[in-house]
Design goal:
The chain has 286 residues and is an alpha/beta fold. Helix content is 38%, strand content 15%. It has a six-stranded mixed β-sheet, with helices on both faces. α4 packs antiparallel against α5 and α7 crosses α8.
């Protein structure tokens, strides 16, 4: 696709890639499922698939190796932050889908290893584009960090120092200020490589929480449902530790995303501001 399209343009012959960003438990899975179903039905009838960045996490073994190689960095001791995804696999998928090739879509089991998670064996991955008359026309690429852009290091240091000062005052509710600068810097540098994916998006929908602190409750609710469905998953205490590892990224990268993930092209991003009840409070077009 040589030129990026607005959300309302006709679907091009190669698939359009629409990113969907939202905090854990914010309702992006429901939004994506509903959007995919609408696109598949008349009058659109677009062949639509959903690709989650969660399904691109490193295998359990690879994640364990990453954590062990940086034992003092709490941000990468479990899946979540930039650096814990298989970027070569993601780029391979994007390329094959753009070319209309027969493509296996990865799947990840978050309940494996008592909630630590692991990739499902490749032979169990669903396949698309086998039918040459029904090629993929829309890819909905969803995930909590889809569209995030790394900060210039000076800005990163400034934000981190500000968080540390707030923590020292005793009124701080975030997590950024509790982490070492070198650990946050590691994640920020890893995120730069994710531009290879963001730059290929034609449009982005951003579910933006009025207060990111909502994510603790939302994630707890999601894990309870997972335990009921699969019999395993994180406890409420484990959820707090888990979200703590994500939360600095919300503090660092959400402001940039609110301003727009794309440097060029108006009308390519939709920001939906949601409250604790996940209801939309405001709609902003960028």
């Amino acid at each position: 696709m040589s030129e990026k399209s607005s959300v309302t343009d006709d679907i091009p012959r190669s698939p359009i890639f629409i990113g969907v960003n939202g905090p854990q438990g914010s309702g992006k899975t429901t939004l994506v499922s509903t959007l995919a179903e609408k696109l598949r039905q008349p009058p659109h009838s677009y062949s639509t698939i959903v690709l989650s960045i969660d399904d691109l996490y490193l295998t359990h073994e690879q994640q364990s190796e990453l954590a062990a190689s940086h034992p003092s960095n709490p941000l990468i001791q479990h899946r979540g932050q930039p650096s814990t995804h298989d970027l070569p696999l993601a780029l391979y998928l994007f390329s094959d889908l753009q070319q209309g090739k027969v493509t296996k879509i990865p799947s990840y089991d978050k309940s494996a290893y008592s909630g630590q998670g692991d990739r499902v064996p490749k032979e169990e991955w669903p396949e698309v584009n086998r039918d040459k008359t029904h090629k993929t026309e829309v890819v909905l690429f969803e995930g909590w960090c889809v569209g995030f852009r790394a900060l210039p290091r000076d800005n990163l240091v400034q934000d981190w120092e500000g968080a540390v000062r707030e923590r020292e005052k005793g009124h701080y509710v975030g997590r950024l200020g509790w982490n070492r600068l070198e650990d946050v810097d590691f994640v920020n540098e890893a995120l730069r490589r994710y531009d290879q994916l963001t730059d290929q998006l034609d449009a982005l929908i951003h579910l933006d929480a009025e207060d990111p602190i909502f994510v603790y409750d939302w994630r707890s609710q999601s894990e309870r449902k997972l335990r009921e469905k699969k019999g395993s998953g994180m406890t409420d205490e484990q959820v707090v530790d888990f979200v703590n590892g994500y939360y600095p990224a919300y503090e660092l990268f959400t402001t940039r995303l609110r301003a727009g993930a794309f440097d060029e092209g108006k009308g390519r991003q939709l920001r939906l501001v949601i409250g604790r009840d996940r209801r939309v409070r405001e709609v902003v077009r960028l």
